[in-house]
Amino acid sequence: MTETLKDRLIKALIELKHIKKEDIDLAISTQRQKGVGLDKILIEKGLITEKDLLILLVKELQIPSINLSKYKIDPSLQEVVSEKIARQYRIIPISRLGNTIMIALSDPLNIFIIDDLKSITGRDIDVIMSTDSDIMKAIDNYYGVKTVSSVGEISKDIAIEEFEIVFEDEQNNPAMTSEEGEQAPIIRMVDLIIKEALKQRASDIHIEPMAENMRVRYRIDGVLQEILNIPKENQNAVIIRIKIMARLDITAFRVPQDGRFKLRVGTQEVDFRVSMLPTTFGQKVVIRVLNKKNLSVGLNGLGFSLAAIEQLKEAILKPFGMILVTGPTGSGKSTTLYSIISQLNIIDRNIITVEDPVEYLIEGLTQIQARPDIGLTFASGLRAILRQSPDIVMVGEIRDAETADIAIKASLTGQLVFSTLHTNDAAGALTRLVDMGVESFLVASSLITVCAQRLCRQVCPHCKEPEQVPEKVLKELGIKVAKTTTFYHGKGCDRCRRTGYLGRLGITEVLNVDDAIREMLIRGCSADEIKEYAVKNNGMMVLRDDIVQKFMQGLTSIEEVFRLTTSD
Hints:
Blueprint: H1 5-16, H2 21-34, H3 38-44, H4 50-61, H5 83-89, E1 92-97, E2 100-105, H6 111-121, E3 124-129, H7 132-142, H8 151-155, E4 163-166, H9 184-199, E5 204-209, E6 213-220, E7 223-231, H10 235-246, E8 257-265, E9 268-279, E10 282-290, H11 306-315, E11 321-326, H12 333-344, E12 351-355, E13 366-369, H13 378-385, E14 392-395, H14 401-412, E15 416-421, H15 426-435, H16 440-446, E16 447-459, E17 464-467, H17 471-477, E18 487-490, E19 501-512, H18 515-523, H19 527-537, H20 543-552, H21 558-564
Helix pairs in contact: 1-4, 2-3, 9-10, 13-14, 14-16, 15-19, 16-18, 20-21
């Protein structure tokens, strides 16, 4: 039997590196289970170093290697191999000669990489070897994600005057200063991080201390993306600068802290919420970007289906009762509630909210920050609110039986109550309240509508291109389409940072509570039974149906359908 390349390498590992055959067999078994390269398993298990493996592969396969840190790559090769492809296959283009592209890779045994790249680029592929870590560093540098060497380097392109901190209460502006935190390059760098976050439409900025540097990541369209690394020596100065902006205690490093600040960027004011958390390597900072212009779009701008919008608009016109928005963390519940409240915010209505924390500061609302440490919980705050003659009440979240009971009783005594709940679907909210200890007849009498929602990523309109979806996948989704139907995905471009997605859309499941559902709830029917009735008799569109419809319209991809929903 002819000895394969893999057999030769395993034999060399045993002979030259004195690795036991049992360890090799275990690594091969683990590789098959995880579906990753054998090289990664060997390195993970500490059987061989990345550098030694490279030397062995070069010797056995007679493939040359390259030191990528000392090689300058032709920028025009980005047109042939995109960043998305380079990261997916963990390769980097090196040079081009005629119709042949030279690429660097770490796993020459994966022949599928070569075949795929031939199909994608339409060119012949030649290979050269490097370590996986060197390839990933080269990708970061080549495609624009750079590790900076100094604060001055990343802060030189922005003027301090472009940003102005707006303090809500000037006399309480603390006279906290620090020579580190007030250095001009530090100020410019923090401002640049914030400015770039606004430009990239980030919802959160993560500034995380690591062992050797400080990593900055943005959450864009729900996914974290690494942007840059800050030198370790500037870590404390950056933390202090952010604390000064958020009016936090700059001397406290061992306890969590929360604050907020507002920046005026040109004519626009943007709120930011700051959370500080002590970690092994220093304080981690998460800054939530709260841009009020996102609330002005109203329900029509959230990407909901027309049927869902009509149902919600009808529900919020009711004089009293409860409307719940459900979903996991980060599914857009707060944005939906604030959009609704903003539409209802007129001069003749008394609207009071109790939140933890207060996210958006809206003019015309009475907003209360819950403080459990001093006894101001959702329940006690809500109880106090009801003595303030409110027309509309918003409770940030129903977390316990006491809050649920007071909120429901408030909705039965003349107030329109809005709140959120963590359930997977709309019908589950009804039974969850009963499970909390609220009487089923009270839940049935108070609830008007429950809206379950998620956020799906929208295909980038700038690099949108048709794609073939296998019939087996369409059948699994229960989709019957004509052969002429076109599906789309994002190829990846500069505007979407090579992700193929730009922006997000709301997908919803709106359950209107009618008399039959009230009766089912009182009888003790399960959430599944209520859901089945709503789909069959009220025409309720479940989350899977809504995102499939958006997929059929070319607004999102098949990957998002499977990522966000399950079959019912």
